[in-house]
């Protein structure tokens, strides 16, 4: 997540920098630094922002379809995927080890490259 995307997400959540700092359990200085691009946004903060956006989306919009429906995953792939195991198809991007594009990713950064291009998560970023 880049600084501009972080700023847009905070605005979309209708939160001040102070309010988002409290929600994320961090300092307002950290929020300033993220938005100014002085500090990289840690994976746990990025993940929490996406989580908050997903919850807001489900409150105000039609709930998204599970990822296995959107991606038309065959039963053999679904059985290996943690999103299927935990019935988290609307939040597959939140779970490490999902079998997106036919393989699990090694870390959060690699996973986000794939997830941000996916129609399941892309709705959060609009």
From TrEMBL:
Positions of the HTH cro/C1-type domain: 8-37
Protein name (record): Putative transcriptional regulator, XRE family
GO MF annotations in UniProt: DNA binding
CDD domains in the cross-refs: HTH_XRE
A Pfam family this chain is assigned to: HTH_3
Taxonomic source organism: Desulfurivibrio alkaliphilus (strain DSM 19089 / UNIQEM U267 / AHT2)
Domain of life: Bacteria
NCBIfam families: two_CW_domain
